[in-house]
Design goal:
By secondary structure, the chain is an alpha/beta fold. The chain has three domains: 3-81, Orthogonal Bundle (Arc Repressor Mutant, subunit A), CATH 1.10.10.10; 87-161 and 270-305, Periplasmic binding protein-like II (D-Maltodextrin-Binding Protein, domain 2, 3-Layer(aba) Sandwich); 164-268, D-Maltodextrin-Binding Protein, domain 2 (3-Layer(aba) Sandwich), CATH 3.40.190.290. Helices cover 44% and strands 23% of the residues. The chain is built from eleven helices and twelve strands. It has helices at residues 4-15, 18-25, 29-43, 59-85, 98-114, 127-136, 175-178, 186-192, 206-217, 231-239, 283-296, and strands at 48-50, 55-57, 90-95, 119-124, 141-146, 157-170, 183-185, 197-200, 223-227, 244-248, 258-264, 268-275.
Length: 307
């Protein structure tokens, strides 16, 4: 079942620009324009309003894009069910953090022992990107970090666990000389580190959302020197004495040159599992889900093989 042209139309609608859509699809702009012109001629109505800056769906275009998504969803579900009969499922899994990657190194080998013919496609992204992909049903499920579990009310969400956020400081920083407790109040940090270089994760990440909310609460404006979503880079820069940062406790490594502190009051983030609507799961998919849940419950996933 060839749905390539339906995906062309959906991409044009999402990008709102023929050039961007062509780049996304790796096709020429001229061939994409010809396809759209032929489709509109066949239907006898315009599907987009052309402006000087973008393409906007007409009422007919909205009907077409909704129908195209339904057809692709039906096809994907059908193919998934057929593959599941022979344990050859293809699962699209989204993850947001280093913890997700660590989880996969434990879960996937066990999963492949049970279902060697199945494949897992990994998509990395921030919380906003993955929530959009779940809504659009372009991924099947996701393990995500969120700043506040109370902001999500969808019944398809399962809270997997809570993680403490820590302060990482160079071990030769003056602060380590006079503060010998493991916990440190936020106001003490802001009073003593206002001139420090802060190494922060990029805006849009869950960790940054959580830290920014605390900055706002205390009316603190950090001296941001560097932004990256690479945990390894931030740890290395702290160890070299370049600045201070915030890390999830799962990302802590007791390498030389870094001192870690907990906060008062404690700062946390949450890990959740979420799956798309209309995902028809079978034994293969349910087994992967059980391994993910088991991992976060601190069980030995190897035992799952014998259940």
């Amino acid at each position: 079942m060839d749905t390539r042209h339906l995906k062309y139309f959906i991409t044009i609608a999402q990008k709102g620009n023929m050039t961007k859509a062509a780049d996304e699809l790796y096709v020429s702009q001229s061939s994409l324009s010809q396809y759209l012109a032929k489709l509109e001629q066949e239907l006898g109505v315009p599907l987009f309003e052309r402006t000087h800056s973008c393409l906007v769906l007409t009422p007919a275009g909205k009907l077409y894009v909704d129908a195209a998504k339904k057809i692709i969803r039906i096809k994907d579900n059908l193919y998934q069910q057929i593959k599941s009969v022979h344990n050859r499922s293809h699962i699209n899994l989204g993850i947001t953090s280093l913890l997700g990657l660590r989880m996969l190194t434990k879960v996937i080998p066990v999963f492949k022992e049970q279902y060697p013919e199945a494949t897992i496609e990994i998509t990395e992204g921030n919380i906003g990107t993955l929530l959009t992909m779940i809504k659009e049903e372009s991924i099947d499920c996701a393990v995500m970090a969120i700043a506040d579990k109370n902001t999500l009310t969808d019944s398809a969400i399962r809270v997997l666990g809570e993680e403490e956020i820590l302060l990482a400081v160079p071990d030769k920083h003056p602060f380590t000389k006079f503060w010998n407790k493991e916990n440190v109040p936020w106001k003490v940090i802001f009073q003593n580190m206002g001139n420090d270089n802060f190494l922060l994760s990029k805006k849009g990440s869950t960790l940054r959302q959580r830290i920014d909310s605390i900055f706002d609460e205390y009316n603190f404006v950090p001296k941001t020197m560097f932004e990256t979503n690479s945990i390894q880079t931030m740890r290395a820069m702290v160890a070299m004495g370049i600045g201070i940062t915030f890390l999830g406790s799962s990302c802590r490594e007791f390498m030389g040159g870094i001192r870690y502190y907990s906060f008062e009051p404690k700062a946390t983030r949450y890990f959740i599992y979420m799956e798309r609507k209309n995902w028809n799961t079978h034994d293969t998919e349910e087994y992967l889900k059980s391994l993910i849940f088991s991992y976060f419950e601190n069980q030995d996933v190897k035992k799952m093989l014998h259940k």
